[in-house]
Request: fold
Amino acid sequence: MSGVELPLWAAVPAALLLVASGLLTVTGSLGLLRLPSFQARMHGPSMGNTLGCGCMLFASMFVSSAIVGRPVLHEFLITVFVVVTSPATAMLLMRASIYRARSKATSAGNEVVER
Reply:
């Protein structure tokens, strides 16, 4: 370790955010295992892991800012990019699976049922 003493105003929120990050990530991963369809499986990890990653990056921002002694915004930019791209990627994957299911159903001569 570097021997830097972390102030209480940064240590407590960082610890709480890290615990929340772990819980959200585990919840998202369990959703991946337990949910029945591909679309439902995509929802849990995309939401849980995105929020978990965001909490971890905010905790890192608190600790880095406390160590350096000034606001550090590098982690904030990473958080914005993760929060924007991860759900968009999941949505594109879900749309691709719906399109694939529709094209399989129409090529097989089955009627496509809208839900």
Summary: Residues 25 and 91 are 19 Å apart (CA to CA). Residues 74-107 form the longest helix (34 residues). Helices lie at 8-34, 38-68, 74-107. Residues 8-107 form one domain.
